[in-house]
Specification:
By secondary structure, this protein is α/β, with parallel strands linked by helices. 39% of the residues lie in helices and 20% in strands.
Amino acid sequence: MIRWLTLLPVLVMAALAALFGVYALKHDPHVDPHALVGKPMPDLTLARLQDGTPLRLRSALAQGPVVVNFFASWCGPCEEDHPALLSLQARGVRIIGIDYEDVAPRGSPGKALAFLARLGNPFAETLVDPDGRAGIDFGITGVPETYLVAPGGKILVKYTGPMSRDQADKLAALALTAR
């Protein structure tokens, strides 16, 4: 009897190792970067960067499709993305900017406003996500990330990283036909 009791911890550990091994074989640990494409946009209310008044993100869809872009003043690739956003704006595409985690020590709302003043403001509305919760709801993996949302709220396309001119052209064509 005592022999079995001494083997019990080893048997428990072996059973746990087998259980975790089977789980690991069936679990895909990779992030799906397009997980929300084809699904509804998260229903969020965020504060405006300029004055802090709340805006329900879905209300922006009443005027047609919208591009949602996550950016930050501390983000170098966001500067590379900016010409594509200005190009979309010039073509009549509505863009909502979400200032992602622009808080001290690396950023601030003032730095975000300076970023937009320096590079140009392509956004019809600029909202803030100081704690990153909206980013989590959208499933972003970093900034910049850009989504095209249809008037009904369905996410049609997602671009991770700075958009190329070709990607911006395709996004503009999709946005203008999704009306």
